[in-house]
Design brief:
- This protein is mainly α.
- The protein has one domain (about 1-40).
- The protein has 3 helices and no strands.
- It is elongated and about 40 Å long.
Length: about 50
């Protein structure tokens, strides 16, 4: 999903159509994925929530 939205630069609507989900679901999935990526990038002991 992140690859479609960010790397391929597709719209929320196009990504939703490809994945068979609603645009709202795509927005939520993107938010969760980016949050997880931020946590993976944070140095140990530092939470950037």
């Amino acid at each position: 999903m992140i690859a479609l939205r960010i790397v391929a630069d597709l719209s929320v609507e196009t990504t939703a159509e490809i994945m068979g989900r609603t645009p709202g679901a795509i927005k939520q999935l993107q938010r969760r994925a980016l949050c997880r990526l931020r946590k993976l990038r944070a140095p140990l002991g530092e939470d950037r929530s």
